[in-house]
Write a structure and sequence with these properties.
Layout (H helix, E strand, L loop, with lengths): L1 E4 L6 E4 L2 E4 L2 E4 L4 H6 L8 E7 L5 E7 L7 E7 L1 E8 L10 E7 L5 E4 L3 E7 L4 E7 L8 E3 L40
Length: 185
Amino acid sequence: MKIIDTKLKGAKLIEPTVHLDHRGFFLESYNEHTLKQSGIGYNFIQDNHSLSYDAGVLRGLHYQLAPEGQTKLVRVTRGAIFDVIVDIRKGSPTFGQWEGFVLSASNYRQLLVPQGFAHGFCTLVPDCEVLYKVDAYYSAEHDRGIAWNDPDLNIEWPVYKPVLSDKDSKHPPLVAAENNFDYKG
């Protein structure tokens, strides 16, 4: 497994070792021991699975307030997405900055999204399945979001008119979003 630092401290891109042959492939999508040796020691307690029927479906930008914040380990098992993280940790040198990655069933990449980051993705092709592990249960009381098209963030999404849920169409910009994450250095 190859662990790659992103420009946003704490977030990681993970490339598993893929064993390909004439039958297909084999990989370890999660190995607690290997990740802990790399400094990634989260206790993942739940797996989530989403299916998006169409290209251009945008889910996000989501996060949960502390103390119910969630760290996510995201991967795609079918299709391809443009996966985005936004640093929302107050006092962080990269506060309000975003980074995007293409995750796909064919590149096998995973994205580690720590607490203190908003997360969202846009499907690049129809019938995308996304699986992600979380280290805290969903809490409706702590559920928050940021507008996908916040002009201050200026995220370069691959779509101009995304397919959104009603909830995701009503998120405020970062400057008005409730946020209790502080940068710990």
